[in-house]
Design a protein that fits this description.
Layout: E1 2-4, E2 11-20, E3 26-34, H1 38-45, E4 69-70, E5 85-87, E6 92-99, E7 110-117, E8 126-131, E9 136-137, E10 144-151, E11 156-165, E12 169-177, E13 183-189, E14 200-208, E15 213-220, E16 237-238, E17 248-256, H2 259-287
Antiparallel strand pairs: 1-6, 2-5, 2-7, 3-4, 3-6, 8-17, 9-16, 10-15, 11-14, 11-17, 12-13, 12-15
C-alpha cells in the first residue's frame, strides 16, 4: 500500500510504529520507503487497492541500518535522535503487509506513525546478514541443520538481533567468537515459533572487535511430529519466500565506530551477498532450466 508522505522539507525519523486492528488476518508487516515514482506506478497499474506480490519492488527499501517491522505483540522502540534516518520530499511510505487467510472476508485497518526528530543523526548503524539460500530439507528428517558465519573486518557494537525462518524452524543459535577465543552468545531460541518473531534489542551494546567471527545455526524439523509442518505427509522443502518454503536468516544491527569503518563493512558485506545471490541463481537454474 503506497502512502504519499507529502513532505515539504527533509525530516528525520527517530522512531516508527505500526498498528493493525486485525492480527488474525495480518501475520507481519514492513514499512519501506520509495523516493521514486516506481511504487506509485505499480499501484496505478494494479486494479485493486495497493499492488500484489511478495516483492515490493527494487525501489521500495528499508532505511539503512534500521529494523522496521510489525508482528503481533511487538513493542515498538522509542529510538534515539542520534540514529534517526532521513526522509526527503517526494518520498512515499510503502506498507508491505503479509496477509494470511482465515476462511472468510476480513476487514483490516493499518496505521503507520512516524516520530520525527528535530536534529540530524550523528551515528549510522548497519545491518549484517547471515543466511543460507541453499536450504534443502529431506522429508521426514527431524534434525536438519544449516550454518553460516562471517568475520568482521572492523570493530562494531551489536545493538539488536533479528532471526527469521518458517514453519519447519526448530531452534536458532547465534554467537560471536572473539579473536581471543572467547565465545559470546548473541541469541538462542530452543523452541522456534513462526507465529512470534521479531527483533530483540540488547539492554547494553555488545562490543565485538575486528576479527570476530559471527556464527549462525538453524535447525529444522521436517517430520510429521512437527505440529507446525504444513505438509501431511512431509515433503522435501527448499529455500523460498513462500511460507511453505523455508528460510534461515539472522540479521544483526551494529554500530561501527566511524563512517569509514561503516564503508569497509558495507563493501565486505556486498561481496558476501553477491556470492550468495550467484549461488541462489545457480540453484534455481538447476531446479528449473
Amino acid at each position: 500500500f503506497v502512502i504519499p508522505l507529502e513532505l515539504n522539507r527533509s525530516r528525520y525519523v527517530q522512531a516508527l510504529e505500526m498498528r493493525f486492528d486485525n492480527s488474525q488476518a495480518v501475520h507481519h508487516a514492513f514499512t519501506l520507503f520509495d523516493a521514486s515514482s516506481a511504487s506509485r506506478d505499480l499501484d496505478r497499474d494494479d486494479p485493486e487497492l495497493g499492488y500484489d506480490g511478495m516483492d515490493a519492488g527494487d525501489f521500495a527499501t528499508s532505511p539503512a541500518g534500521q529494523f522496521i517491522s510489525w508482528q503481533p505483540g511487538k513493542v515498538p522502540s522509542k529510538g534515539t535522535p542520534d540514529m534517526a534516518f532521513r526522509l526527503n520530499p517526494g518520498t512515499d511510505a510503502v506498507l508491505q503487509v503479509h496477509m494470511q487467510p482465515t476462511g472468510k472476508p476480513e476487514p483490516v485497518r493499518g496505521q503507520v506513525g512516524l516520530h520525527y526528530s528535530d536534529t540530524p543523526p550523528t551515528k549510522f548503524p548497519f545491518k549484517i546478514m547471515l543466511r543460507r539460500i541453499d536450504i534443502d530439507i529431506p522429508a521426514g528428517v527431524s534434525d536438519h541443520s544449516v550454518e553460516d558465519s562471517y568475520q568482521l573486518p572492523v570493530a562494531v557494537d551489536a545493538l539488536a538481533v533479528l532471526p527469521h525462518a518458517h514453519y519447519l524452524g526448530k531452534s536458532v543459535q547465534a554467537y560471536a567468537e572473539l579473536p581471543n577465543g572467547e565465545r559470546r552468545w548473541l541469541l538462542r531460541i530452543d523452541d522456534w515459533d513462526f507465529n512470534w518473531q521479531g527483533d530483540y534489542r540488547y539492554a547494553k551494546p555488545i562490543h565485538l572487535p575486528s576479527g570476530t567471527v559471527l556464527h549462525m545455526k538453524w535447525t529444522y524439523d521436517n517430520s510429521t511430529n512437527n505440529p507446525r509442518n504444513p505438509f501431511r505427509p512431509a515433503r522435501r522443502v527448499r529455500y523460498g519466500v513462500q511460507t511453505t518454503d523455508e528460510m534461515g536468516e539472522l540479521w544483526l544491527r551494529v554500530l561501527p565506530a566511524t563512517l569509514k569503518d561503516r564503508e569497509i563493512l558495507y563493501r565486505d558485506q556486498q561481496s558476501k551477498l553477491l556470492a550468495e545471490v550467484i549461488t541462489g541463481r545457480r540453484l534455481r537454474l538447476a531446479a528449473n532450466p
